[in-house]
């Protein structure tokens, strides 16, 4: 299939022999991804599902903060709590937002719409293709 591709970002992950301690990153930034002890990991970092929901959460509140700052709305703090579930036929991610500030109901409704416009939300709810190439 001939696709027109526009690079958004690059990432990497590396694992050695230690169960399942992984170094992952993008650009000059790295984190540890691991599995908990009950999965024979060392619990030195988030597991991949935790990393996925944390990506959604951080993208959501960054997107909201950008919008709020552009509008000049009085918001002191934004918190997002996420839970991921296995359901029949797929997965469900619940996202609960707490916004501390003096906002109207209309502003809060708009922020709920903006939360759904964050780029990671769009990736997770859109069409995603993964190509694997072995070197």
TrEMBL record:
One Pfam family hit: OsmC
InterPro entries assigned: KH_dom-like_a/b (IPR015946), OsmC/Ohr_fam (IPR003718), OsmC/Ohrsf (IPR036102)
Signal peptide limits: none
Name under which the protein is recorded: OsmC family protein
